[in-house]
């Protein structure tokens, strides 16, 4: 947890962006694995963490804009709790850590909000992503869970996004803590990946590093010899000589700031000639995209730059044909890169995705495309100082997608399907780093993690 003053200043900034009513913040509850006393690893709601900092279940908070009052609602632990948990601070003491003077028992939140609504005052709340929170909103505000997210406060969403999108020096420092853990995770994977091992052996050890150094993984680890499946969380394959494994993994700092790094590893320690050709195209696209990033530059344009480099590289290999710019304009390259270049990152690995990508990655000047591939771009609007972005181009050979497009003769003017067949079983290659937008340029965060082919092969040896 940061110093109380940091949270107090964030709330002051939020009050300046909102005009009237009451802002409602719901913290998360514990979620049982198989019975109530055996819960999953607790993870606090990120927006609650951002404004209040308290990393424990059973809390809610309000900011009364009309009366300039802040209250944290929760409970004081009983002797029965203390027997199992040890001595615990009071609710008032916990509120004080967040710079809040007023605290009340959980049961008083309902009456407080009823009084607000009786006076015809607005209660602002954010989109809810957990079923128990939907039920809470029903109990507090009388809105059926099915319709809760139809009544969220768009001004509240926009105000939170405006603040959370710009990372402070303290936040950047914590992201780099998470990146130091990720660096150790990825170097371990390079060193110990070898033929005959299961993916699980590496994935499990990598998760252990995240747990021993920080709060754990920032998202379920992707470690797979089938990197063509973009979010592949299966770890049961036995790795074989000549294969490549995509390791997309990151950690959370103790303050829950994320890292998100991808490296592609040759299972036998050396890339084949075919893998090398594809890898170099991806690396060129990634380095060029990073180099283009600065304030005022649309991330959409950075994405398209990476796509054109990928298309041109595949044209040079004979896998694609024609003009690279026209191929990208028509969306032909998406057979090989069907996802966006990256996303914001912070307290969430896909930062604020629960608030709606239309508010985080798009704005009035930048609308989402409906073209296959480009439609998956999570962030398209102009970059600003303080944004932290992932940059993660890739090239994938997805047999089912190849077969579908070939059967439809889709983009046959730009794709040599006969040539594609010889790469059909290559899998996928992705390379990812995390980038901070500075006052007039950018900075790749964290210490370097082996990325060039000589560096990766040396780390694997």
Kindly describe this structure.
- There is one protein chain.
- 38% of the residues lie in helices and 13% in strands.
- It is globular and about 70 Å long.
- It has 16 helices and 15 strands.
- By secondary structure, the protein is an alpha+beta fold.
- The chain has two domains: 4-164, Creatine Amidinohydrolase, Chain A, domain 1; 169-460, Creatinase/methionine aminopeptidase superfamily (Creatine Amidinohydrolase, Alpha-Beta Complex).
- It has helices at residues 4-17, 46-52, 79-85, 91-97, 108-118, 131-141, 154-164, 169-192, 199-213, 273-291, 299-317, 324-330, 357-360, 399-407, 417-420, 453-460; strands spanning 22-26, 60-64, 69-74, 102-105, 123-124, 216-217, 222-224, 244-249, 251-252, 261-266, 388-391, 394-396, 428-430, 433-437, 442-444.
- The strands form five sheets. A five-stranded mixed beta sheet has the order 4-3-2-1-5. A three-stranded antiparallel beta sheet has the order 7-8-10. It has a three-stranded antiparallel beta sheet with strand order 11-14-15.
- Helix 8 runs antiparallel to helix 9 (199-213) and helix 8 (169-192) packs across helix 16 (453-460).
State the main characteristics.
461 residues, alpha+beta, 15 strands, 3-stranded antiparallel sheet, Creatine Amidinohydrolase, Chain A, domain 1, Creatine Amidinohydrolase
């Amino acid at each position: 947890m940061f110093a109380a003053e940091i949270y107090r200043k964030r709330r002051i900034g939020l009050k300046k962006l909102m005009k009237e009513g009451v802002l409602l913040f719901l913290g998360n509850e514990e979620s049982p694995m198989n019975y109530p006393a055996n819960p999953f690893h607790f993870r606090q709601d990120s927006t609650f963490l951002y404004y209040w900092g308290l990393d424990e279940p059973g809390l809610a908070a309000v900011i009364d804009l009309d009366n300039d009052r802040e209250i944290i609602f929760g409970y004081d632990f009983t002797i029965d709790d203390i027997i199992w948990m040890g001595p615990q601070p009071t609710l008032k003491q916990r509120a004080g850590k967040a710079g809040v003077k007023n605290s009340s028992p959980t049961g008083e939140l309902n009456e407080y909000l009823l009084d607000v609504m009786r006076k015809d005052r607005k209660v602002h709340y954010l989109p809810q992503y957990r079923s128990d929170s939907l039920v809470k909103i029903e109990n507090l505000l009388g809105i059926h869970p099915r319709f809760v997210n139809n009544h969220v406060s768009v001004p509240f969403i926009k105000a939170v996004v405006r603040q959370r999108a710009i990372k402070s020096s303290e936040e950047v420092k914590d992201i780099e803590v998470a990146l130091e853990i990720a660096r150790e995770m990825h170097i371990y994977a390079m060193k110990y990946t070898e033929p005959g091992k299961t993916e699980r052996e590496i994935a499990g050890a990598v998760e252990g590093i995240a747990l021993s150094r920080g709060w754990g993984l920032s998202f379920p680890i992707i470690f797979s010899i089938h990197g063509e499946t973009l979010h592949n969380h299966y770890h049961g394959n036995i790795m074989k000589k000549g294969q490549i494994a995509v390791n997309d993994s990151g950690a959370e700092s103790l303050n829950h700031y994320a890292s998100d790094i991808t490296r592609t590893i040759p299972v036998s320690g050396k890339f084949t000639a075919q893998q090398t050709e594809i890898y170099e195209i991806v690396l060129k696209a990634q380095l060029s995209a990073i180099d283009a990033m600065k304030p005022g530059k649309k991330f959409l344009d950075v994405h398209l730059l990476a796509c054109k480099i990928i298309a041109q590289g595949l044209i040079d290999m004979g896998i694609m044909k024609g003009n690279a710019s026209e191929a990208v304009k028509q969306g032909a390259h998406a057979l090989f890169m069907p996802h966006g270049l990256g996303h914001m990152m912070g307290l969430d690995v896909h930062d604020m995705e629960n608030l709606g990508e239309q508010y985080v990655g798009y704005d009035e000047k930048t609308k989402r495309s409906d073209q296959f591939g480009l439609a998956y771009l999570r962030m398209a609007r102009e970059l600003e100082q303080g944004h932290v972005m992932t940059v993660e181009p890739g090239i994938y050979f997805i047999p089912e997608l190849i077969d579908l497009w070939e059967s439809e003769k889709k983009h046959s003017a730009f794709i040599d399907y006969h040539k594609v067949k010889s790469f059909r079983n290559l899998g996928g290659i992705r390379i990812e780093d995390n980038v901070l937008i500075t006052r007039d340029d950018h900075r790749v965060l964290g210490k370097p993690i082996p990325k060039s082919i000589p560096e990766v092969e040396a780390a694997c040896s």
